[in-house]
Design brief:
Structural class: mainly alpha
Number of strands: 0
Radius of gyration: 19 Å
Number of helices: 6
Largest sheet: none
Oligomer: single chain
Length: 129
């Protein structure tokens, strides 16, 4: 029963995020077409995951349900690669905005959150192992 509920977790979260994005678009006085496109894109992703996760190992992984240890390993390596790219991009954006005279604080905040999460993970997993 738990796995059936979890199967729908990522698509449901995607739908909720789509609704929140659409409401934010409407609140910012976006056109109806912009709000419609934002909900359609996220709902299409959620629907594709829901339909394909039982037929495709990749879709299953994107839905948070890796099919075996190999796919779990692929997921962990992909997450590590994405984290490295985000770290470099955030620091790069901070430097560019700092030199261009903009407000670098949003990038500094994101880099700080990333660093604290990483250090917290290192301490936690070191303590647990």
């Amino acid at each position: 029963m738990t796995s059936k509920w979890f199967r729908w977790f990522v698509p449901l979260v995607a739908l909720i995020l789509g609704l929140l994005i659409t409401l934010a678009e409407i609140r910012q006085h976006a056109s109806g077409a912009q709000a419609f496109v934002s909900i359609v894109v996220v709902c299409a992703y959620a629907l594709a995951l829901a339909v394909l996760q039982s037929r495709s190992e990749t879709a299953s992984l994107l839905a948070g349900l890796p099919v075996d240890e190999r796919w779990t390993s692929i997921n962990q390596r992909a997450l590590a690669s994405a984290a490295q790219v985000i770290a470099v991009a955030t620091v790069g954006a901070f430097v560019i905005v700092e030199y261009s005279g903009g407000d670098p604080m949003p990038y500094a905040l994101m880099a700080s959150i990333f660093a604290l999460a990483y250090l917290g993970g290192v301490v936690w997993f070191r303590w647990r192992s």
